[in-house]
Structure formats: structure tokens, C-alpha cells
Amino acid sequence: MKTHLIALDWGTSSLSAYRLGAAGETLEERSLPLGIMQLDGSEAGFESALEQACGDWQAAGPEVPIIACGMIGSAQGWREATYVEAPLGVGELGSALLPIKRPRGMPLWLVPGVIQRGTLPNVMRGEETQVFGLLDGDADHAAPLLIGLPGSHSKWVTMEGGRLRHFQTFMTGEVYQALLGHTILGRTAVANDAFNAAAFERGLCVARLHEGQGGPLATIFSSRTLVLTGELSGTAQADYLSGLLIGHELAAMTSTLQVLPLQPIVLIGNSTLCARYLWALEYCGFESLRFAPEATAAGLWKIAEGAGLVAAEAAGEPHVRHHAGH
User: CA 56 to CA 60: how far, in whole Å?
Assistant: First the structure.
């Protein structure tokens, strides 16, 4: 089937490529370990990675537009795409695409990240594309929706009226890895592939109790002391710490964003990690919860459509509109 858009999710560790059809459907998908931190930062390095990911798609369709989101548009990426300020809709992202002219073939259009200004500024690159991709499949765009994207830097995004209103970042995943890998807490932890649900729930409980009101800095040492006193096994320590940190994250998120238990929440991301967050959200009393599949390709199509890189299918009409001056 004919390719109408080449869409890339280009992050720090990996590069995912999607070949999309006339209605934005995924015809083919690839994932390579060619994130920006695996490359040398040179023009040639980025071009080589792009060629490996989708060179054959480009050769088969030289006029097919190419769009990318993620850290490829950061200061450490191919070019730095200026942040767009929140609140915003998908149209603002499409209007701010940054083209990279290449020696041959179509330009690469970079999706800008989003910045939330304030006393403590907040930024995202890539998550905004997922959010708008998810929203495209939601019938009711007017009702407020909270979207969680668990990960190294978990994001909680408030959407209303089809617009990204507010977001908050929690470095839960990265802190978890750092604590186990680079502090004394890891000395008592014993690797275990099996998930210890009781230990995870115990961590959630501590974060919600009076003892947890001091925050994570006052409670994370308990993941060691409970092992030293024999109240927790070394094999259960990692899951206890995971529950503790996620519990603190959800408590802070609920307070910061003033989220009520009836608030509809959708999670996007790794299914295993999202399962932990769904468990934790249910434990915290939230009722309207669901998990959504990864939505980057849908978001990239929607942004490209709004920018005029692809057109809605119509008889006799071209599917690509070139921007003047590019």
C-alpha cells in the first residue's frame, strides 16, 4: 500500500519509525537502538540513522513527507526546535514545525516540545504527540481528562476542550533506578524477577499513612531498615521501594493538580509499568481508569495533517501540500 507519511519517534535510546497510509493507519513499523545518545551528534550520524530506519521507504516514495517528535528536536538532537507554550492545541504544534533541509530527499520536520512557564518551568518532548494522538480517538474532547505517562520522567497532563492545559513531571523512574543502583539502598536489595504484590502495596500504604507525610526523603531509607530488621526480605525490597515512590508521586500529583477521585484517567506507556500505576491509582481510590495503547503514530499523523504535510483523502486530490519557502 502507498506510503503517505513517514513518522518517527526519535528519543534518547531508540528510534521508532512508522510508515503510514492514506488514513494515518500504520502499514509498517520498525524500532532500532539509534536514539540520540547512541549517535555522535554529527549531521552524517543522524543521516545514517535515518537511512537505516527508513531509507527504503524514502527511496520508494521520494515525495513522502517525514516528521519526527522526541529528543531529536532537543539541544542534543539534530536541531533544537523551540518550545511552544502551554496551554495549546494541536494546531500550535503543527504551525511551529521546524524543517531540517537535507542533502537529498524531503526535509525532516521536527515537532517542537512544550514548555509550561512559571516559578518552576516544566518541559516535555514527545509526550505531547502521544497525548494528541490519544485525544484523536476520544469522542468527548470537551470533558476534562487526565492523562498519565509513566516512565523515567512521568508526566501527568490535563486536557480540556481538545487543548493541553497543564502538566507536571515526576522523576520517579529515574530516581528509583538511581537509588537501587547508586546508593546504600541497593546493598540490601536482592534481584528477583517475580513481582511481589504485597511489598508493592506495603510501599503504597506507607506513602499514604502519617509516616509518609514527610515525603520520599523521610521514608525511602525504610526500604533498607525493614530488611535489616527482618520485616522485609531482600527480594521484596525493590517492589516495596517502587510502591513507596509511586505512592508519593500520586499523592503529590493529586495535591498539585487538585484531582478528585471521580476524575477520568487514562494511562499511556509500557504495559507492565502502567499496570503498577493502575494498581496504585485503584488503591488510592480512583475509579474511572483505563489503559491506552501507545499513540505516537496517531499523534504524528494528526500534527502533520494540521500542518498541511498530508491532506485528507479525496478523489483526484494530492496527499502532500508543500509549504511555500521550503
Answer: 6
Nearest partner of 264 among 283, 284, 290, judged by Cα: 290
Half-sphere exposure of residue 159: CA atoms within 13 angstroms, side-chain side: 27
Sheet of strand 98-100, all strands in order from the earlier edge strand to the far edge: 26-32, 15-20, 5-10, 66-69, 108-110, 98-100
Q: Are 310 and 322 in contact (CB under 8 A)?
A: no
Phi, psi values for residue 5, rounded to 5°: -160, 135
- Give Cβ neighbours of residue 43 (< 8 Å, ≥ 6 apart): 78
All three cell numbers of 318, joined, read 494530492
For residue 4, list its beta bridge partners: none
Nearest-angstrom CA–CA distance, 298 and 306: 12
Q: CA-to-CA distance for 171 and 160, rounded, in angstroms? A: 25
Distance (Å, whole) CA 128 – CA 116 = 12
* Tens-digit pLDDT profile for residues 13-64: 999 999 999 999 999 999 999 999 999 999 999 999 999 999 999 999 999 9
292 Cβ neighbours under 8 A, 6+ residues apart: 134, 137, 266, 267, 268
Q: E strands within the chain? A: 5-10, 15-20, 26-32, 66-69, 84-85, 98-100, 108-110, 114-116, 122-124, 145-149, 154-160, 163-170, 265-268, 289-292
- For the entire predicted model, the pTM comes to 0.89
User: Contact 180/238 with Cβ under 8 angstroms?
Assistant: yes
Helix, strand, or coil (residue 194):
coil
Is the link from the previous residue into 87 a cis peptide, with omega within 30 of 0?
Answer: yes
Query: Tell me: the pLDDT tens digits for 114-144?
Result: 999 999 999 999 999 999 999 865 555 667 8
